[in-house]
Amino acid sequence: DEADKGTYPFYMLKEVDEQPNVMRKLAQTYLSEHGEPEIDDKLLKAMQAADRLYIVGAGTSYHAGLIGKRLFENLAHIPTEVHVSSEFAYEQPMLSEKPFFIFLTQSGETADSREVLVNVNDAGYPSLTITNVQNSTLSREATYTLLLHAGPEIAVASTKAYTAQIALEAILAKALGEVTGQIIAQNFNIRQQLGLVATGMQAIVDEKDKLEAISNNYLLKTNRAFYIGRGIDHAVSLEAALKLKEISYIQCEGFASGELKHGTIALIEEGTPVIGFITQEKTAGLTRSNLQETMARGAKTLTIVREGLAVDGDDLILPDVDEMLMPLLSVVPAQLLAYYTSLNKGLDVDKPRNLAKSVTVE
Ligand code: G6P
Q1: Which of 185, 250, 262, 315 has a 20 to 30 A CA-CA distance from 156?
Q2: What is the ipTM for the molecules in this complex?
Q3: Which proteins does it associate with, and in what oligomeric form (predicted)?
């Protein structure tokens, strides 16, 4: 049974470990034997006709949307906005002439996101729901659906649905970029990349002892922490911080590393953990100096770095994949750091207080 915990103490750990297979499953499902995306033509035509994409989601799905924006803009050259569904529903931004909506929702049942879809349908705009649950409400009510095929996600803290959403967005962005004739999309070898991602994820989940030791050393005894990065690394830092907050109850902010100095750095005290993501060549040096700035104020810093950008003294080295797909790897140590911190605090990892897996009220 897919929903069986087996020998795992908690579903979350099982679901983290399943991620390499989820990547392979998505490649099998959505790529041809030659590695070309196989996406419904009608869906691609509808997206091609749009002048702007609007990605809507809540929680972790919203965070997956922040990565999707980069993928759709880079690979398909379509301007893309990302919105928190509970905000969009009651303060709709001015829309472009031909909007296309993408709903990201693991469960397909989130009331905040559904409220937006109801409005979108009333206005007659085309939409796509990317979800893990076939026949869920948002899947039924949107014009198109793509399934994540991640298998049931039971732990409240979402892990494999986040990486599945990003991988599927990448496949879709590649498909769209190809039909609109973008060279960068044509040259993007998605099958090879997803293969590298799967292998890379496996290497990270095989380092559980090291991640548990880092959790013990950096996070277990703190009640405040930061994840920082720039650009796509900032987007991942938001998800990394959410994981830690949800299951360990440590107050953690994901922050744009360059923005820290404009106020928030005042929170850094002796021993405050600051974890930096460094996976993008353009901003690696800048994030390193921002980490230095926190260290000078007493922070206990940790670097999570893509191999090609690593220097002596870096703490966690991630295998290299295309920079656009680095979030698929950089989030994994953060998931495991959250897991071990929660576990060793003796908390219920799978069922954190105050939270529900699927929130069907606004
Ligand atoms: C709840 C869950 C979160 C999830 C969010 C959105 O708050 O606790 O983990 O990210 O809903 O859920 P969805 O099913 O729409 O992705």
Answers
A1: 315
A2: 0.98
A3: Homodimer.
